[in-house]
């Protein structure tokens, strides 16, 4: 590789042979002049040793199964089925690719070395089957600016993964870009806790990521964003929340993200942007918002959002936004709607209609069974009704007799005398 110095055993053996040849020549010259041999060797040995140490790489300079380029300050250990981070990484590495491996667990101090990897600025661990990242996994990397953990089923992401094992005393993280796309684990590996909560705890612990400029959380099946999740990330410029399942942004505040330049909300389940969210986005001076492929519900609650879309220029591709519900509004362009088009008719979605139909069928079946029971017991019910009628008639006749006596004074006196 021209100028790239992809180091391998051949280059090291060649330099080693040259060094040995120099030592042999030096010994031959020293033996030809015995009187000056000691002084000549003693004066030349330090120079030769320093030259050899400066030119020869250490045997472990490039880890096995990896490709190294000192000129590009890059080490690639890609698709090598590594189960742990190589211990013999060269100290000059600035860009480290450990993608497509079988790392499983990233322990505390996984990159601690002597001498330290002081120049490592970009670390890519995507697609390496990581399911656990422990506290302090990225400690001792003072220059780390970009970290990619995408496409790893992270069932256990420590709250102190990015802030250090002791967030109360650790310095702020140097991270500027954090890429966490598609890190959702399988359902049976979530350890009975909220995946959203686990990720947010790692982002907010110790306020270590206040200098973060780019955060990507795409394709993680997020149903919601916890309250104040962005309040401690004031330096964000790019936020990617695309391809999730976000239904609402009601509890998310963008007010403090004054530097935010791009917000990706494509391919979610957003129905409408409410007034509070619209006002906050409108107040950000450099923002560009992407809202494609959301199932917008075009009813009376959409009036303010449609008005905002017609006035603002921050929404990219706003002419492509269309209604998904109700059925009569499907595929209509939001920018072409008027307030008269946006009403709240009591039109139920198909799933709710199906539920009510099923409920009606159940109630009808119960009614039919009740009528059948009445029919089968009609004789007993008829006898019971006759008994009730006779009892009521006797009771009413007694009341009628007492009423007649009380109404006629003669009968009242007669009744009194007979009592005497």
UniProtKB/TrEMBL annotation:
The chain crosses the membrane at residues 356-376. InterPro entries: Cys-rich_flank_reg_C, Leu-rich_rpt, Leu-rich_rpt_typical-subtyp, LRR_dom_sf, LRRNT, Wnt_signaling_inhibitor. The keyword tRNA-binding does not apply. The keyword Transmembrane helix applies. Residues 294-345 form the LRRCT domain. It is a single-pass type I membrane protein. One of its GO terms (biological process) is negative regulation of canonical Wnt signaling pathway. It is found in: Cell membrane. One of its GO terms (cellular component) is dendrite. Residues 1-38 form the signal peptide. Keywords: Cell membrane, Disulfide bond, Glycoprotein, Leucine-rich repeat, Membrane, Phosphoprotein, Repeat, Signal, Transmembrane, Transmembrane helix. Residues 61-95 form the LRRNT domain. May function as an inhibitor of Wnt/beta-catenin signaling by indirectly interacting with LRP6 and blocking Wnt3a-dependent LRP6 internalization. This is Trophoblast glycoprotein. It comes from Pongo abelii. The lineage of its organism: Eukaryota, Metazoa, Chordata, Craniata, Vertebrata.
